[in-house]
Structure formats: C-alpha cells, structure tokens
Amino acid sequence: MLDIINSRRSVRKFKTDPVSEQDLTDILEAAMNAPSAGNEQAWQFVVLQGETLQKYLAINNNAPKGAPVGILVCQDLQAEKYAGFAVQDCAAATQNILLAVHAKGLGSVWTAVFPQNVADVRTLLALPEHITPFAFVPIGYPAATPANRSSRYAAARVHHNKW
Amino acid sequence: MLDIINSRRSVRKFKTDPVSEQDLTDILEAAMNAPSAGNEQAWQFVVLQGETLQKYLAINNNAPKGAPVGILVCQDLQAEKYAGFAVQDCAAATQNILLAVHAKGLGSVWTAVFPQNVADVRTLLALPEHITPFAFVPIGYPAATPANRSSRYAAARVHHNKW
Predict the structure, then answer these.
(1) How far does CA A38 lie from the centroid of its chain?
(2) Are B4 and A1 contacting, i.e. CB atoms less than 8 angstroms apart?
(3) Between A and B, how many residue pairs show a Cβ–Cβ distance under 8 A?
(4) What is the domain range of residue A9?
(5) At A91, which CATH number?
(6) Is B153 within 8 Å of chain A by CB?
(7) SS3 for A73?
(8) Domain-located, residue B122
(9) Does B161 contact A at CB distance below 8 Å?
C-alpha cells in the first residue's frame, strides 16, 4: 500500500486500449469511499468518453489528450453541509481515484478545471447550477513507464510541537 | 490496495500505546508523495505530542482526545503557485496520511481546523503568517475495531457524458 502511494506518478501519455467497465466501477467505488466533512459526500462523477471527451478536452486544454476515458469529479453544493468543504471531499475522492488507478496498472493525472472554463464545461455536460466541476482525471494504460523520481519526503517540512 | 481504501474507517478512540518514529516518518513520506498543483507541494506538517497536543485539543475540540500523537497539516501560502490550490494539495496529502495510517494497522480521523480557531492555533504553535492550519489528524492504535459499514458506492452519483 505504501508502495502504491509512493510509486504513483502522473501519467500524461496513454495507449488507446479501453478501460474495462469493472475497473471504472472499482475506481469510482474507491472515490466514494473517501472521507468527507460530516460524511456529507458532496461529490458527483461524470464519466467522459468518445465525442464528449474530445469536446471536453477542447475546452480544458490543460488535460492531456489520448486517454480512452476520464472522470470529471464535481462538487455537489446541494449535498455540502459545511460551506467550503466540498472541495476537500472532492480532493480526497480524487486522490483515491489516482491510487486505485495506479493499483490497477492504469495511469492518470489530476488536472484542474480552471474557473474561466467552468461555464463552458457546465454547458457541454448540462450540469445544474449546484454542480461545480472540480478536477478531471483522464485514465488509460500508460504509453510508457514514467521515470522514477526520488521520494518527495522533505525533513524540513516536518516540525515538532512548534514552528 | 483497493481493500485498504475501501476498508478505511474514521477512528476516534485510541489506545495510549505510542506510534513509532519510523511509522510517523513513513506516514509523512506518504503525505509528501501526494500530487500537488504544478508540483507546488504547498504543505507543511507539525507533529503534535505531549503537552502541546493537549493544548491543541483544548482549542480545536472537534478532534477526539486520547491519541498519543497527531499531525497538523498546514497550507504553505509562500509555496503556493496557483491561488487556492494549496487546499487541494493539503487534502491529497491528508488522504494519503489516512491511508498510510490504516495500512499500518493504526487509526486516524480527518478533523477540520475551524476558521474561528486558526488564530489561536497560530499563536500556540508560533506559525508564521504564510502558514495556515488545514486539518488535524490524530493517530494511534484503535481502541476498538470500527464497525463495518457497506461501501459508499452510489450508482446515482455516476453520470455518463452528460448530467
């Protein structure tokens, strides 16, 4: 488990091989088993494939192209009980997605939905006003093994009882 | 790995047994191997023990008492390259902490640092202005095995190509 956490890398080049429905369901289950503020579960997920995926990528062009599928993680502001915490719920769910993807030998990268693109994404996917796109995670088999890097552990970022 | 993600539960009652330094280091390494926006790593960690831990818990009394140690995850606003994204970095790091803890047979719970308590926490720990406490995670051996619950997977939260 620690190895999965520590060996995860961002993957931005993908094979065209499809991702199975079972894998997608397992990944979404991992997402929804994240913790959330007061168990509010202020998240929703839109699976993007085919033509819609291509249209999404034309709007949010910070996300890499080439993956056969992607998950758009969205804040559900109607489910949010604690103002501002849907972001934290969605971030925890997104991190679970990345780890579940990596555990399956698939690859992904966490990409932001920039504020200036939210309106266009909302229109493309017919999202209601209480649903705010949060992050997009393309998923596919890696086209190459990402280079190893050393651990990011930095002792200077660890403090004991005071700064 | 999926089992670790799906079987994680919030633990709020702890044994007094100490957490080893090696376990703490491994947990902090997992935290720092989270992804972050443009690899900004806008996080810092304060390990709280002993008297300081008790003082912290008197301020932020939403966190359970009884754990021998805890990690305060903080936003580092000097390291933040993309405004607002330190929260996402810290949430991903916090989720890695919860998973690493669970993988080791330890227990934890993600607790919020409420805005009204930030100033007092800052004073207690001598945090500089650019360091904002984000979440506190008490860590210890669980005093009891949390009850099983069914998976939170909810098909109604999965949408395909449009809402």
Answers:
(1) 22
(2) yes
(3) 178
(4) 2-142
(5) 3.40.109.10
(6) yes
(7) strand
(8) yes
(9) yes
Q: Measured between CA atoms, how close is B38 to chain A, in angstroms? A: 9
C-alpha span between B110 and B135 (Å, rounded): 7
Nearest to A117 by CA among A95, A135, A130: A135
Please check whether residue A47 lies inside any domain of the structure: yes
Give me the pLDDT at residue A128, please.
98
The answer, yes or no, to whether residue A147 has pLDDT greater than 80, is no
Q: Is B10 on the interface with A (CB under 8 A)?
A: yes
Q: If pLDDT is split at 50, 70 and 90, which confidence band does B99 have?
A: very high
What the block records as the tokens of A100 is 């579940």
pLDDT above 80 (res A16) = yes
Out of B76, B109, B151, the one facing A29 most closely (by C-beta) is: B151
Kindly determine whether residue A158 and residue B29, on different chains, have CB atoms separated by under 8 Å: no
Is 0.85 exceeded by the ipTM? yes
Widest pairwise Cα distance in chain B:
53
Interface of A with B in 81-110 (CB under 8 A): 82, 85, 87-88, 91-92, 94-96, 98-100, 103, 109-110
What pLDDT, on the 0 to 100 scale, is given for residue A124? Answer: 98
In a domain, residue B59? The reply is yes
Q: How many domains does chain A have?
A: 1
Decide if A17 is inside a domain. yes
pLDDT band at B150 (very low <50, low <70, confident <90, very high): confident
